[in-house]
């Protein structure tokens, strides 16, 4: 080589050796190799023929990929470096638009390369829309690695995240292509992965549904060991646990397909039987187990049996699996050698070697299945478009301890499609005991709206004097309600006349298979618009006379135009031949619209006609409750050597007793209070005195719930004894004890433990009520039931703010919006929670926008004048508010 420096040039030279290997090549670029168009920002695949260049003395494990924009003269743009020489690589097309482009694939740190045969075009960038990627799948799953791939979202990059199933922490990788290999995984562990797309504009999609995969076990390579002559002697039978293998002569036999379980800490016998084809020779024996699964038999204690040279047949011994052995399958090796002790890895002349599989398990007698516990709620309610985040579960075993990492999660949730989805959790312990699978239900529903065109003027009355009026029969039930006057056709049931006027409605239960059993009759109310009232009460008369098993009736409410229904009042059984009164506080539903329905299900008899009359919807709340009493909350009562403000009934058979320590009867009652020293209980001893069918009633003081937005009655009960120990019920009265409604009840033995109960008193807000425990003994003395640790908690309504409600962590949640109407550009939102998801809907039901409230302000400057509904998604429930934009 010569340079041309002015004033005197210099020459220099050097030598290099190039080796041409005829067994490798040709190394050829396959794609792109025609005049295709690749849009800037998209992910494309460059392919080439490896042609043996990863071996054959070339050993190019990696390649570099370059781009030319001048028809192949220069390659200044690097697309990828040091990627695997496996024939394919995804690249992101740079924004170098033109039609003089070519690709070079070159061996890293080598001189061989190939370029594409023709120019291709780089087009304008594709607009990125951050859609949820689809087609996420796992492949090439190994002991510590797995490849995850998905379908491309044009012009997007990706966040790929993965974690062990049942844990909460994600590992997130940024990926430019449509596949990625994750490493550093734990063997025999189930993982879940999700992917989302990202656009350079800053928008991100939701994460995809999870895909799960389980890593494999580490593949171990054991040393070889074999004889070279089996003409005179060989192993003909091996007996160990469930292995009982009889086989012919071989130098080495791979019987690893045969396995048996070995329990830690238990003595196990092994028997080896030789066969001599002629002369009987002295044979030595040895057995090894790879206890720590490290691929050899050289660790301390791994030789579990040895026998000096002998002509005895068979030979036997016992060994005990140490508690330090690694659980799971591992290798067992059996060797027999002529006249000398065998070693685990050797070649010798006379004898035989056989390999088997053993499964190391927890100590013998482990027949108890592990227990799976869900993290979070068993039922999750989402709206279409929400993100489902897998919360996982934990698993514990009586022997293996925490085996959460072994949980296998199956199922998929697609929040873009309304429906009910299930996620199933399974796990087995080392002994093979399978847990009872646990299922989480995810309900994905469309955003729903309340009913419209309803009753706005109150009081509203309906006596069915002109048919069923504005009420409607359901088309999804079994039988209809009937307008009637005077008595019903059946004897011994139904009213003889209306409560008011001439007519009433009722359900005729006659004719088996038509009217009973389990026939349903639903009567739907019109829409009640309660947006302009502050308090509301729905009252009616009902007649429930007939046989004991005459079925049930419930009043149910819907705030989503009949999409879902919640029971707000119900009754079962015979109430006597008289009209009964019911009055339900609907203050919970003010500020919106609600539909009601009577849901009647017949029992096992025709003698079961139930009637309704004198329906009223009024502003205000029910009156005629008790007077005085408790007004300051929380209220607590622990019966510390006194009944406090509670009183014994004079209309029952026996009394409740204040007690400490255990009750006098054995095998029943608590041994101590759950809090403090004392509790109250009913002593069931004495045939004819304490049982059978003896009633004990204790009544609370009056609770004034006026001005309260929520109320919960909590207590602990102990119900331990014989199976037929009777019943206990918590009942409520809002008419000063004239009538009582059951809120909660239990029957039978619940075990020797205090149990906790929380009962919502929401239907009785703004009323004065009394509660009572109604205990009826069974047919045995072994039936003492106790109560302790009573407390009643409330939250108060604050003018101008929404009713506080407990959130999932137990803190109070509140929400208010102002001003209303909005005359400016900002709607202010005051809340005790951060980042609440919301959806804004116009009066026609169209979604205007959605997002999260993070600043306490919502820009409404672009909204047209009119009425709007804003829905807040709080802890799986929907809070709806309305406002007017001027």
From TrEMBL:
Coiled-coil annotated residue ranges, if any: none
Domain of life: Bacteria
Keyword Signal belongs to the record: yes
Gene Ontology MF annotations: hydrolase activity, hydrolyzing O-glycosyl compounds
Residues of the MAM domain: 460-628, 635-800
PROSITE patterns: FN3, MAM_2
InterPro entries listed in its UniProt record: ConA-like_dom_sf, Cry22Aa_Ig-like, FN3_dom, FN3_sf, GEVED, Ig-like_fold, MAM_dom, MAM_domain-containing
Cellular component per GO, a single term: membrane
CDD domains: FN3, MAM
Claim: Signal is one of the keywords in the record: yes
Span of domain Fibronectin type-III: 132-218
UniProt cross-references to SMART domains, sorted A to Z: FN3 (SM00060), MAM (SM00137)
Alphabetical UniProt keywords: Signal
GO terms classed as biological process: carbohydrate metabolic process
Protein name: DUF5011 domain-containing protein
Organism: Lacinutrix neustonica
């Amino acid at each position: 080589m010569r340079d041309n420096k002015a004033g005197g040039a210099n020459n220099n030279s050097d030598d290099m050796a190039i080796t041409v290997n005829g067994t490798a090549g040709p190394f050829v670029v396959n794609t792109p190799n025609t005049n295709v168009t690749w849009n800037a920002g998209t992910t494309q695949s460059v392919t080439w023929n490896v042609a043996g260049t990863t071996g054959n003395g070339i050993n190019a494990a990696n390649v570099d990929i370059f781009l030319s924009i001048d028809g192949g003269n220069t390659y200044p743009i690097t697309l990828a470096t040091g990627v695997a020489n496996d024939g394919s690589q995804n690249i992101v097309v740079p924004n170098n638009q033109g039609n003089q482009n070519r690709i070079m694939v070159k061996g890293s740190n080598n001189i061989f390369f190939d370029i594409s045969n023709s120019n291709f075009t780089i087009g304008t960038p594709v607009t990125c829309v951050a859609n949820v990627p689809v087609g996420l799948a796992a492949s090439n799953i190994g002991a510590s690695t797995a490849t995850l791939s998905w379908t491309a979202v044009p012009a997007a990059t990706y966040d790929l995240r993965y974690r062990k199933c049942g844990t909460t922490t994600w590992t997130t990788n940024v990926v430019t292509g449509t596949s990625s290999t994750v490493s550093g995984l734990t063997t025999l562990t189930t993982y879940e992965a999700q992917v989302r797309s990202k656009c350079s504009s800053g928008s991100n999609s939701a994460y995809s549904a999870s895909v799960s995969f389980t890593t494999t076990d580490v593949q171990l390579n054991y040393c070889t060991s074999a004889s070279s002559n089996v003409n005179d002697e060989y192993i003909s039978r091996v007996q160990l646990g469930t292995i009982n293998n009889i086989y012919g002569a071989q130098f080495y036999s791979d019987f690893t397909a045969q396995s048996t379980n070995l329990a830690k800490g238990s003595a196990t016998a092994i028997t080896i039987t030789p066969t001599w084809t002629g002369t009987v020779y002295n044979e030595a024996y040895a057995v090894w187990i790879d206890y720590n699964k490290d691929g050899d038999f050289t660790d301390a204690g791994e030789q579990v049996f040895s026998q000096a040279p002998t002509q005895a047949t068979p030979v036997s011994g016992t060994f005990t699996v140490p508690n330090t052995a690694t659980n799971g399958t591992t290798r067992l090796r059996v060797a027999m050698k002529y006249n000398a002790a065998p070693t685990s890895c050797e070649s010798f002349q006379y004898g035989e070697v056989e390999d088997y599989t053993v499964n190391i398990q927890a100590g013998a007698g482990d027949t108890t299945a592990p227990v799976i516990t869900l993290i979070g709620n068993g039922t999750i309610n989402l709206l279409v478009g929400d993100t489902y985040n897998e919360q996982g579960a934990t698993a514990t075993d009586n022997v293996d301890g925490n085996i959460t990492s072994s949980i296998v999660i199956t199922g998929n949730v697609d929040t873009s499609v309304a429906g009910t989805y299930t996620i199933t959790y399974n796990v087995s312990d080392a002994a093979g005991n399978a847990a009872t699978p646990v299922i989480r239900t995810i309900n994905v529903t469309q955003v729903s709206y309340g009913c419209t065109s309803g009753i706005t003027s109150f009081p509203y009355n309906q006596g069915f004097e002109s048919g069923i009026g504005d009420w409607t029969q359901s088309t999804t039930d079994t039988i209809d309600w009937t307008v009637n006057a005077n008595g019903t056709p059946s004897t011994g049931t139904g009213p003889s006349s209306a409560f008011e006027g001439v007519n009433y409605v009722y359900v005729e239960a006659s004719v088996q298979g038509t009217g009973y059993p389990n026939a349903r009759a639903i009567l739907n109310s019109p829409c009640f618009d309660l947006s302009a009232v502050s308090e509301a009460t729905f009252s009616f008369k009902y007649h429930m006379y007939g046989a004991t098993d005459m079925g049930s009736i419930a009043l149910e409410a819907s705030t989503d135009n009949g999409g879902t229904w919640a029971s707000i009042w119900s009754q079962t059984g015979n109430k006597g031949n008289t009209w009964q009164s019911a009055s339900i506080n609907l203050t919970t539903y003010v500020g919106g619209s609600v539909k009601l329905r009577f849901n009647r299900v017949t029992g096992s008899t025709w003698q079961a006609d139930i009637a309704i009359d004198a329906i009223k919807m009024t502003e205000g709340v029910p009156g005629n409750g008790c007077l005085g009493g408790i007004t300051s909350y929380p209220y607590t009562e622990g019966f510390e050597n006194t009944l406090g403000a509670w009183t014994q009934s004079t209309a029952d058979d026996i009394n409740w007793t204040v007690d400490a320590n255990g009750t006098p009867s054995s095998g029943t009652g608590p041994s101590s209070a759950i809090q403090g020293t004392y509790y109250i209980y009913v002593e069931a001893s004495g045939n004819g005195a304490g049982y059978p069918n003896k009633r004990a009633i204790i009544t609370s003081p009056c609770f004034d719930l006026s001005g309260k937005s929520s109320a919960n009655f909590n207590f602990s009960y102990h119900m331990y004894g014989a199976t037929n120990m009777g019943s206990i019920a918590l009942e409520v009265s809002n008419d000063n004890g004239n009538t009582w409604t059951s809120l909660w009840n239990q029957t039978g033995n619940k075990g020797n433990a205090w149990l906790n109960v929380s009962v919502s008193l929401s239907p009785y807000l703004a009323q004065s009520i009394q509660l009572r425990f109604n205990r009826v003994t069974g047919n045995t003395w072994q039936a003492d039931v106790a109560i302790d640790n009573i407390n009643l908690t409330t939250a108060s309504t604050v003018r101008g703010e929404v009713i506080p409600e407990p959130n999932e962590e137990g803190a109070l949640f509140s929400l208010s919006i102002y001003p209303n109407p909005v005359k400016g550009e900002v709607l202010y939102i005051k809340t005790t929670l951060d980042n609440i998801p919301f959806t804004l809907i116009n009066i026609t039901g169209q979604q205007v926008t959605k997002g999260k409230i993070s600043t306490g302000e919502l820009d409404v400057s672009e909204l047209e004048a009119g009425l709007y509904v804003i829905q807040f998604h709080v802890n799986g429930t929907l809070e709806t508010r309305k406002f007017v934009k001027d």
